[in-house]
TrEMBL record:
One of its GO terms (molecular function) is carboxylic acid transmembrane transporter activity. Keywords: Membrane, Transmembrane, Transmembrane helix. SUPFAM superfamilies: MFS general substrate transporter (SSF103473). Its main location: membrane. This is AAHS family benzoate transporter-like MFS transporter. It is found in: Cell membrane. InterPro entries: MFS, MFS_dom, MFS_trans_sf, Sugar_transporter_CS. The chain crosses the membrane at residues 12-35, 47-70, 82-101, 107-127, 139-164, 170-189, 247-268, 288-308, 315-332, 338-362, 374-393, 405-424. It comes from Nocardia fluminea. It holds the Pfam family MFS_1. It comes from the Bacteria. Residues 14-429 form the Major facilitator superfamily (MFS) profile domain. It is a multi-pass membrane protein.
Amino acid sequence: MDSPAPRQKSGLVVVMLCFLTIVADGYDLIVYGATVPSLLDEPGWEMTASTAGLIGSWTLFGLMVGFLLAGPLADRVGRRKVMMAGVVWFSAGCAICALATSPEFLGAARFFTGIGLGGVVPSAVALTMEFAPRNRRQIYNGMMLTGYSFGGIIAALVAIALLPDHGWRVLYAVGALCVIVVPAMYFWLPESVNSLVARGKDDEAAEVARAYGLDIGAVRAEQLIQRTATANGEKASGFRMLLTRKYLPSLLLFVVVCICAQLIGYGLSTWLPVLMREAGYPLGSSLQFLLVLQVGAVIGMIGGSMLADRYGSRRVLVPFFLIGAISLLVLSRKVDTAVLMVAVAGAGLGSIGSSSLAYGYVAAKYPASCRGSAVGASMGLGRIGSILGPSIGGWIVGSSLATHWNFYAFAVPAVIAAVIVILMPASTVDDEVAEVRAPEVEPDRKSGGLVVEQAG
């Protein structure tokens, strides 16, 4: 029988381990900004602000490379191996950063570190979705992706505690300690059941499915869809499968959505304090605006994921992006402080929060054989937005245009993203699995459950 066995292990263990890897990602992305003032004063380096910006861009390029390489690799050799290798790679990169002797050395080390980070995230999203109960996939994914915010908070606290007395190198050395997660991953992080079935390891897949109470019948139905597609002349897996007529149009739409979300999120994260001051709002603390932005992002990740599990990602993403656009339009006007903070939180919800929902939607949209590649491609190419956002904001701030044009420039991508999600085909891989399994499911009168005949 292929009916799910009583749950012996919790998928939350998988979520927690994936969460810890995303914490490392959030830590690394924030720690560089925390060390830039010290790097500019490093004796003998003669580092300029433009050089510091270039090094920051190299990290993003490394992330793009990691996203694009790790997705198909995870689809081919398994998500568990790629995640552990990515954590080791990232930790080694942090250690190398701590030993940097010049700006050029540090830039190369940051690029190297970015590749390791990019190698972790697609597998973390795919594993979380695959080990979550089918009716709670998005909330599990949302909880896991909050690791970005927690990692950023940890980086800020470590910088406050250690940077003044111990210098910038110790912050990267702390990042290298993430390697201690690898033994826990080795013993407690299981391989994806979908990946095991795809590689012909049926016995091992059945054992993992029983241990975690997963529905292996649904996994086999998913593989049947892939075999049917292959028999009809479609490519087998990974990027080759994504480039077929069935999947390429939706992938291109997802990439544009992710570019829009990243453009808004990174643009606001970079320029929000400056924009608030130029708009004439009370100065307060720059961190206050960024903190409220992150609070809105976390609300979007958790609350949006809960709604997505109930109503579907598509129905939640559209209003979330529109909330982001409306919030940005509100910020372009002179409003009370309370309304201002609500609008800043709404902007975080509609940009950073929507990004995590979009990644979960991607993972739910595609079968396991190309899921990692789809998430990696969406995240990797979506990083174009993370480069465009700060650049667009900087161009408008440095031009003669009024401040409100910056908010308009960030509101337009939010509207574009909402429209694209509306145009997105509504069906997901679960819908295809349900169609394949429907004729094969019959009542089990003894157990009251379901019996799924193995597809032949």
